[in-house]
Amino acid sequence: MTHPQLEVLRRNIPGLRLEADPAELEHYGRDWTRRWTPAPLAIALPADVEQVQAVVRWAGANSVAIVPSGGRTGLSGGAVAANGELVLSLARMNRVLGFDPIDRTLTVQPGITLQAVHEAAAGHGLAYPVDFAARGSCSIGGNIATNAGGIRVLRHGNTREWIAGLKLVTGTGELLDLGRGLVKNSSGYDLRHLAIGSEGTLGVVVEATLKLADPPPPTQVMLLALPSFGVLMEVFAELRRRLRLEAFEFFTDRALHHVLAHGGQAPFSDVHPYYVVAEFAMRGEADEVAMLAAFEHCTERAWVADGVIAQGEAQAAQLWRLREGITESLARHAPYKNDVSVRVSAMPAFLAEAQALLGREYPEFDVVWFGHVGDGNLHINVLRPGGMDGAEFVGRCEQVTRLLAETLQRHGGSISAEHGIGLVKKPWLPSTRSEAEIEVMRGIRRVLDPRGIMNPGKLFDP
C-alpha cells in the first residue's frame, strides 16, 4: 500500500477488500484493449452500497481518481487504470436481490454476469433478451455503463430499453434512486438515461432493476453464403420482409478463417467471401414455408450462393459459434478495432464507401469485418502485420480511423455503436457529437462529479 491514506481507508471501512498485489493490479487495471500498461494505485472490492459510498467519499477527500470496474470486457479503454487510479471493482456485488412477478422485473447487483441474469430470469419462466458472446464474463454494471447491444438488438433493442431503474453513487458519494421501476413517470428529467452509457464518468451503478420478457418463441437458424458485399442489404431486406427476424449477423471469409483455426468444420465445401447467420421465429408450417420462399427468392437472384438450415439445437449452436467465436479467435492478435454504426437505411451507401476506404488504406493488412447489420452496426478488426512495431501499427490505424470518422460524419453515423468511447475513440467523438452537445455533457459531469474523480480522461477531457 503506497498511498499514505490507503491504510486509513482500510481501517475506516470494515469488510472492504483492498488488493495491491502486482498480479491483481495488472488483472484489474486493464480491459480487453491491452494497449495501456496497467498502473492502478490499488483495487477496492466493496461488498455493499455503503462501502461504495465510503470509498467514493474517501477518494474525493484525498483527490484520488476512481475507475469503476465490472467484467472489463470493453474494447475502448473505458476500464483502464494506467495513471495511479483506484480501481473500484464491483465483482463482490454479484447477487440477485429480488424478483417481482407482477412488474416482471429482476433487481440485481452490478457485478452479476449477464449469463447469471439469463439463468435467473429463466428460473422464473421469463427472459432478459439482451445477449452477446461475452455473456459469461461481462457484468450488468458494465453493460449499463456502455449501453451494450449485442446480437438481438434487431428484435429487442439495446440495454437501455431493459433498465426499469438503477441506483447510482455519484462522484460526491450521494446515492440516487433513478427510475424506480415506474412504467410512466413524467416528473422531470429522466436521470436514469443519463447514467446509462455514461461509462462510469457520472458515478457508479450499484443496483439495477431489469425488465423481463416472455421467453422467445421457437427459432430456426440459417447460415447463408453470399457472393458479394453488394447483395448483403438485399438479403437482409428479403428476410426481414418474410420472416420475424431475431438476429441477422454478417461476417467475412477472413473471420471464418480465424474461427476455424481454433477448431471446427467448414460449413461449405467452397470458400465464399461473405456469410450471414440469421435467426428467426419458427412457430409453425407458415413460418417454414416463408423461410423456404425467402431462401429460394435470394438464390434465384444470385444474392445467395449456398446455405444451410440448422437441424436441431446442436447444429444451431455450431452455426452461431462461427459468428460468436470471432472475437475470441482474434484476441491473440490484439487487433485494432472499430465499432461503428449508421442508420440501417444509410448502410448500403456507407458500406460501399467504407469498403473502398479500407481496401485502399489497408492493402497489406488482414482486415476482419463482422457485425449486426440489421441494426446498422459494423465491427472492423485490423490485424498487425508480422514484423510491424506496435506503435507504428496503432499510428497507421488511427490515421485510417480519422478518415473513417469523416465518412461516418457524412452518413450521420457514430464512431461507437456499443463499446463506448473510453480512451480509444475520444479523439473522434466530435465526428459524432457537436461541440455544443459535448459542452452540455461536460456540464452534467461537473454537477454529478464536481471533483472530477470519476473515470477521468475517458469519453472527453474536462
Automatic annotation (TrEMBL):
Domain of life: Bacteria
This protein's name: FAD-binding oxidoreductase
UniProt keyword Flavoprotein present: yes
Signal sequence bounds: none
Lineage per the UniProt record: Bacteria, Pseudomonadati, Pseudomonadota, Gammaproteobacteria, Lysobacterales
Organism this protein belongs to: Luteimonas soli
Family designation: Belongs to the FAD-binding oxidoreductase/transferase type 4 family.
Record domain FAD-binding PCMH-type: where: 36-215
SUPFAM superfamilies according to UniProt: FAD-binding/transporter-associated domain-like, FAD-linked oxidases, C-terminal domain
Alphabetical keyword list: FAD, Flavoprotein, Oxidoreductase
